[in-house]
Amino acid sequence: MSPADHLAPVFAQYPMEVVDAEGVWLHTRDGRRVLDLYGGHAVAALGYKHAGWMRALSRQAEACSFQSNAVPMDVRVRAATRLAHFAGGHFDSIFFVNSGAEANENALRMAFKMTRRSKVVAIEGAFHGRTAAAGAVTWGADKKWYEFPRAPFDIGWIPRRDIDAIARQVDADTAAVIVEPVQGVGGAFDMGRDFLDALRARCHDTGSVLIFDEVQIGVGRSGQPFAAQYYNVIPDMITTAKALGNGFPCGALLMSPRVTAALKLEGLGTTFGGGPMACAVIEAVIEAIENENLLENVRRVSKYLRDTCTVGPVTGHQGAGFLHGLICSRPAKDIQRALLDRNILVGTSGDPHVVRLLPPYTLQKEHVDLLREALENL
Ligand SMILES: Cc1ncc(COP(=O)(O)O)c(C=O)c1O
């Protein structure tokens, strides 16, 4: 039977309809004001109606809404330069794309090109996207939604934080290791510096390429520009998206000089990636994070969240910065429902007992107090 609204019936729907939003607040059709601690799956980094972001988007729309990557545009150079500097100078070229999955797909392509090997190693619990390559290294996708008849390459899995398993899986056939430094869908699960360090060392020894998937944790969510800086472990490539555009669809692949050296003309391609409107908002997002001290705010308010919110059903915390997991004694889905009844939107995750928080970086302590009061009364 056709759905009445003609939307493909693939998404479960929250019991609210958003008609407007401002800062960290959503306004619903039935007149509610809902505190958004989920940010549209980690996208709304600056919150809603951010003046600089809106100005950048509308100015670029008025100036020139689109030209392909074959046409030089200053805004594209400015966005790439700003992002490269923001990432700490370890990555000398940026390839702009449209989504997280596309960033990962291209990162894996580069690793195969560089090594001419046949295997990718990923981490149990990982989520890397829904395209053929990204989905193949997403934990459990083959049983749930992968649907392609086979994976495009060999795959090895390492249990989370299992340092001993690294040497067994990452070998001379391994083109790449792909890892979320803090897993998002996996439950705001922080891999820890020792594990990431061990991956870095093993990739170095075997000549494999290390990819950090920072689609969810990147662009400031950890309280540092990227989790690579948070852990001080520098991969060969970073993939990112979500917060990068604050709602305008875009993604990026950040490449170290070793990867850049393997690029050749027409080796990568895209129509919309690197479009001027996307580049204008990327520049605006980084400018806002830097000028409004948002990294410092993420660090301060996420610490407050940890320090004050072990109440009600919450028994502990995991994750980093504003990719925050509330470990709960009751099913996360029940807590999500009960909080939404109290006008607070939170997320769940692959871990049935972890409530996932992905708030805008502008969140203040007073908003955390509202969450704490609601949790105390659950
Ligand atoms: C860590 C991670 N990688 C990749 C993706 C896929 O991104 P997209 O949905 O933009 O393709 C996601 C999306 O949730 C993600 O969390």
Structure write-up:
The protein is α/β, with parallel strands linked by helices. Helix content is 37%, strand content 19%. It is built from 14 helices and 16 strands. The protein has helices spanning 39-42, 51-63, 74-86, 100-115, 132-136, 141-144, 163-169, 193-206, 227-231, 257-260, 276-291, 294-308, 332-341, 365-376; strands at residues 18-22, 25-28, 33-36, 93-97, 119-123, 154-158, 174-179, 182-183, 189-190, 209-213, 237-240, 251-255, 314-320, 323-328, 344-345, 354-357. A 7-stranded mixed β-sheet has the order 4-12-11-10-7-5-6, with helices on both faces. α2 (51-63) packs antiparallel against α11 (276-291) and α3 runs parallel beside α11. It is globular, with a radius of gyration of 20 Å. It starts with 17 loop residues before the first strand and ends with a helix. The model has no long low-confidence stretch (mean pLDDT 98). The structure holds pyridoxal-5'-phosphate (PLP). Pyridoxal-5'-phosphate binds at residues 41, 99-101, 104, 127-129, 180, 184-185, 213, 215-216, 241. The site of pyridoxal-5'-phosphate has 15 residues, from α4.
> Structural class, judged by helices and strands?
alpha/beta
Percentage of residues in strands: 15-25%
Quaternary structure type? single chain
**Distance linking N and C termini:** 39 Å
Estimated helix fraction: 25-40%
List key phrases describing it.
378 residues; alpha/beta; 7-stranded mixed beta sheet; 14 helices; 37% helix; 19% strand
